[in-house]
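User: Show me a protein chain along with its predicted structure.
Assistant: Here is one chain, sequence first, then structure tokens.
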Amino acid sequence: PESRVLEFYYENAHWHGEKCLQEGLISSLHATREQALEEALCLASFIARQAPAGVQRTRRQVKAKLRSQIIDCEAWAIACSIAEKTVFTNLKEQNASFCGLSTAVREIVPASIAGTSTAPTRRSTETSMASSEAWFQEDFGIACIQLAVPARACKAEEVEQTFVAAPCSSKYLQRAVGVWECDEDAISFAMTALQKLLRTLPPNFKIEDIGRLEVGTESNVDLAKSIKSYLTDLFPASHRELFGVDNTNACYGGTAAVLNTLDWLRAHPEAQFGIVVVTDTAVMNEEDVSFQGAGAVAMLLTRESVYQAVFQTRSPLPVAIERQAVPLMRNTQDFLKPRYATQLSPYIRGKESMDHYLEALEHCVKRTNEKFGDSIANTDYCLVHGGLCRSVATRVMNEWGKIAASAGERVSRQDLLRKFEPGLKHGEELGGLYTASLYFSLHSLLEHAGDEVLLAPKKVLLFSYGSGSTATMFRARVQGRTEAFEHLETRLAAREFVSGMELKQIISRHVFAKSLMDNNLPEEVAQRQAKRAVAKCNEGDFLLTRFPAGNEKRVYRQV
């Protein structure tokens, strides 16, 4: 009876094998731990693929809002299934059953585990554990990516002609830089990217299955409050159970948010989806205008089984990110954004900053090879933080080639370009992107590597760097384009290109906007001086509609 089974389930912290067999909680006993482990591996594989009644009920209960009662709910669901004799036995409803090493299981279990006879092959516990860890490790990564970029730009040649100290094209190798008004900021770009992501989710997607929302930035306008707080306005009022806050670090906050969210998914089997939004505005003074840029990337992160179930596909997770990585962190003074600085540009010690970048690169490249055997020679593509201009990424590519050569690896110039070039296309059109740079590079790879990314999985090494300084090299497999993938090239070509003199006027408005927020000018001054030209915006973009004079609220609306 149900009551007896449930009572036995709750009261026996240390169950005896023969008693469990008598009560019907287990189907068989094995003489050795190794044999039991092998049988358990086969059973786990079967459950993962067949999703029988007990597992289905448990999954439903895991989504319950009363998290403290999840264990009780799971116990009840399993106990009910046992009492109803529907676990592993109901052939009509489940299409297959597990009884020893059944034919159904043999079809999905590797021969090395299933064996060729009914008796499991005897192996050491250590060998079995290693095999199971490699076999059952589920992929975690990115299912969807959506972008937000400025609707205007200034061509690099125009920048050079207007600003004497800005060799945008000739030295920094840019094609253009992004241009935006002072009614756009890191928050508005983040809202635009996130709204686009939410609108591309399939009809059967449950918004309540998003359990984490995390932001990476170095451009928040409020030192007390996360950008994430504003993003919650895009979710239903009934859904406020969202873990995560902002990760703030020069150029690296996005990677911190991605790695945090992936670890959260791995640590919580009941977790379904997490969203990471990486957003920044690299606003600059006239002498540094070659480095300016802005944009945001919104990414939906999940595990492969959930991706396939929700998106109703048999395809692998588009971008699978490996758990193990190589970090490096030091205290350097090459890139500063003092709280009360009056200039738009950060304080940059250019050569020192580049030296720190390359030192971090060398460390991470060598340690990645030592720990995992992955190098530029056996990797299909390499993605790097692009700094504030194309020339930074080009120098990093050349340096990586030298590191490989010193280790005895032969990588030709042609191979270097093939591995790096697809990931650099977006950055040379948009300018400095700070924390979003690496993830625009990932989208650029998916777009510009062409159909090659669809033919077979591609190994990718990603190097994230932030001045100050911190770095991480991690690894991924690109197994196709992400869901609802939107090519950026068409949108970039349709931008409104402003003249150098127009760019000068826009920079002056940014200077005023900064002084307004930092110096808390009187409200009447704000109302008089903060009237700015209305920027041309893509439909659906968010804009700041109430300029924050003093302690007023920031209010955003969608165009």
